[in-house]
């Protein structure tokens, strides 16, 4: 009979606990503090049927096989990403700790007691050995009945923090993919610039040798020789500059992807891939701001932090109400195993509820509530700020993508015009119509135009990489982290 009474009491307490109220404010997603459309009216948009960048994996966006292998190595070996993934595990464990507080901790116990009493301490005037006492049972210690939802609010806050950590890891992955692709494009650009400087140096060195021969024969003056030497040494200096930058780009890739990347990026005698060969998925729809921005993991992380702050308000409110805890035990105690588990002779139990009412610390509890309320407002402002920043990043990259194509066409036309001017000026010099200064000017103009074309191609490819990044491209699948 007693067991039934105790069991009913425990079940009733659990039912009261599960029916407890919650002081968490009703969450309402803030309105997006940005325009409903991109500021550049000339940008293409989709109707919602096309996939957003977040759904496009990097293997589909970057068509270069070499770059795909390098990115895979970076995702496998990069330490920053490993730390981000470990942060997920840490946040998950912290959430599980908070969640476990919602359930009672039931501990089992077993004991045996036998005592020898000396003569000086004996009430019988002689030494004796006490009877053996055995016990076994289950107990609950200071289990909080969450009538006002304090424990549940803390668990909800930990859950949102865990989800925010997952999204932060996804942001780290996206940034790593973009950094790796950008470093590879930089390497290809510096290698092509190095090759251009070497070819220019060869041409100018040959011109210098001709001028030197003419000078020695007395058919030209020292000024022409000095001008030819200036152009030759300038091209030679450019070779070392671009070799240095290429080596630094290689170091960047090794830092991002590990030393194994050397096998993929070491410069062969005949380059297998140049900056002109590498390709990306250029048809990336702009979409609507709401679809693009809300798919970004950093935006989702900011919203989870806002929800966590919202739950903290609930915990702070609940802390101002009484705390009801329960300590209880149920077991058997006997001096003989023969009747150890006989409820009529050995059943033992204890039931000790406790109520703690905040009285003199209400001022501090109100201050904690004020801190939580302000923290929620801060998180809301940070969420809105993250959306505004994301909107600007995407809008800037979309505008850049639109205009880079025209700029590239113009720069390539400049290269063609400069090469034509150089050929004409050289022909006029060879026929004695112009002096060598016009040849040097046109040669420098051609070298500068070709350098500009390569740098602009690198900037255009970097724009496509950054556009994929700021649109949340290739976000990490964190379903396995649940």
TrEMBL record:
Keyword Transmembrane tagged: yes
Keywords: Lipoprotein, Membrane, Palmitate, Transmembrane, Transmembrane beta strand
Annotated InterPro entries: MdtP/NodT-like (IPR010131), OMP_efflux (IPR003423)
Entry GO CC: plasma membrane
Matches recorded under Gene3D superfamilies: Outer membrane efflux proteins (OEP)
Family membership noted in the UniProt record: Belongs to the outer membrane factor (OMF) (TC 1.B.17) family.
Protein's name according to its UniProt entry: Efflux transporter outer membrane subunit
Organism annotation: Desulfobacter hydrogenophilus
């Amino acid at each position: 009979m007693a067991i039934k009474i105790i069991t009913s009491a425990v079940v009733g307490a659990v039912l009261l606990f599960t029916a407890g109220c919650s002081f968490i404010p009703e969450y309402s997603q803030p309105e997006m503090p940005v325009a409903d459309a991109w500021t550049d009216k000339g940008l293409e948009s989709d109707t919602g049927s096309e996939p957003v960048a977040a759904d496009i994996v990097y293997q589909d966006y970057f068509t270069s096989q070499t770059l795909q292998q390098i990115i895979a190595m970076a995702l496998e070996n990069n330490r920053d990403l490993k730390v981000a993934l470990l942060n997920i595990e840490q946040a998950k464990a912290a959430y599980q700790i908070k969640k476990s507080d919602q359930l009672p901790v039931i501990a089992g116990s077993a004991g045996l007691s036998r005592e020898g009493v000396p003569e000086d301490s004996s009430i019988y005037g002689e030494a004796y050995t006490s009877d053996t006492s055995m016990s076994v049972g289950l107990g609950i210690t200071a289990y909080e009945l969450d009538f006002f939802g304090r424990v549940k609010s803390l668990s909800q806050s930990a859950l949102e923090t865990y989800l925010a950590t997952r999204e932060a890891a996804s942001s780290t992955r996206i940034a790593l993919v973009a950094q790796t692709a950008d470093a590879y494009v930089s390497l290809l650009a510096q290698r092509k610039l190095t090759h251009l400087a070497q070819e220019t140096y060869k041409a100018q060195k040959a011109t210098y040798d001709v001028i030197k021969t003419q000078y020695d024969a007395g058919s030209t003056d020292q000024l022409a020789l000095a001008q030819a030497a200036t152009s030759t040494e300038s091209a030679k200096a450019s070779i070392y500059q671009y070799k240095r930058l290429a080596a630094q780009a290689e170091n960047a890739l090794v830092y991002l992807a590990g030393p194994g990347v050397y096998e993929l990026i070491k410069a062969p005698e005949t380059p297998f891939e140049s900056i002109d060969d590498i390709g990306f998925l250029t048809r990336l729809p702009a979409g609507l701001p709401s679809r693009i921005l809300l798919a970004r993991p950093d935006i989702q992380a900011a919203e989870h932090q806002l929800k966590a702050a919202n739950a903290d308000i609930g915990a702070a409110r609940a802390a101002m109400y009484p705390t009801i805890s329960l300590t209880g035990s149920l077991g058997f105690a006997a001096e003989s195993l023969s009747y150890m588990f006989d409820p009529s002779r050995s059943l033992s139990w204890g039931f000790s509820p406790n109520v703690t009412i905040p009285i003199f610390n209400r001022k501090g509890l109100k201050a904690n509530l004020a801190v939580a309320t302000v923290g929620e407002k801060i998180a809301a402002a940070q969420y809105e700020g993250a959306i505004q920043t994301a909107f600007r990043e995407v809008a800037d990259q979309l505008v850049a993508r639109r205009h880079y194509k025209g700029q590239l066409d113009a720069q390539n036309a400049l290269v063609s015009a400069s090469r034509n001017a150089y050929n004409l000026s050289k022909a006029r010099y060879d026929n004695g119509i112009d002096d060598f200064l016009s040849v040097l000017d046109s040669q420098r103009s051609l070298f500068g135009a070709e350098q500009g074309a390569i740098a602009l191609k690198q900037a255009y490819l970097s724009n496509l990489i950054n556009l994929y990044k700021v649109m949340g491209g290739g976000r990490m699948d964190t379903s396995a982290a649940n």
